[in-house]
Amino acid sequence: MNADPDGKLVSALVRGVSILRCFSNKTQELSAKELMDLTGLPKPTLFRLTETLCELGLLRYSERLSKYVPGLGLLSLSSPVLTRLALRQLARPQMQTLADLTEGQVQLAVGFRRELCLVEQANSLGNPIFRPEVGVRTSLSRTASGRAYLLGMPEEEREAYLRDLRAADPQRADWLGHRLDDARHDLAENGFCRSHGDLHRELESIAVAMSKPQDGELWVFAVTLPVYSPLCGKLETEVGPRLRTLVRSVESVLGASGLS
């Protein structure tokens, strides 16, 4: 739960959202006890909130599992968000072309504040790479997309994120600081950030952020290849230039269409 030093947030709403945030693509069902442990909410409060969320269709209690699962109402809430992101439709054909050329995966993630989420992906035919679902959060520290996003942030926001991380986990903050130094060097030399296989050792990714935010949101494109791909040895000469061209092309279309 985010700190609220100014007392501007509605506590009941914050607590309800904190329950929904406990679920992810890897954690799809949770008991009341697990939710209490994750949120720190007392039992009476938790049950009041889960009952309300169930009534709204945002949560559902599965009698078969004796656990809570995300409700279908969440889908209707996410639909307007995806519809609003017109850039997905503009970028999709070029993303598919690049995925086919590299026989890999091309992803588009959008970030706001300290959240970076996958909103579109294209895969080549027979691509063996793991395919995350649209809407999944992207790690800011362990992925090429996350580092490209962090370096695209205003400096004061990035430094605030690193300060908070250092207070919570100094070792991880130091490690990320070194990785960001590597990412700055890669950006200067090659125009992209690398994953270094930090999240998935069997995959290599490079990422390029758009040069400026769109309506306050920063967009990041990435190419992911299996480590055995011959193109992993040609990131600087072939894959990187193609990815940069894709990003500049999308920016050009956005400018011409007035969507930026």
From TrEMBL:
IclR-ED domain boundaries: 73-256
Record keywords, A-Z: DNA-binding, Transcription, Transcription regulation
Which SMART domains is this protein grouped with?
Answer: HTH_ICLR
What Pfam families does this protein map onto? HTH_IclR (PF09339), IclR_C (PF01614)
Give any single GO term for biological process. Answer: negative regulation of DNA-templated transcription
What superkingdom heads the lineage?
Answer: Bacteria
- Molecular function, one GO term: DNA binding
SUPFAM superfamilies, alphabetically? GAF domain-like, Winged helix' DNA-binding domain
Q: What is this protein called?
A: IclR family transcriptional regulator
**Record has DNA-binding as a keyword:** yes
Against PROSITE patterns, the record matches this protein to: HTH_ICLR, ICLR_ED
Signal peptide residues are none
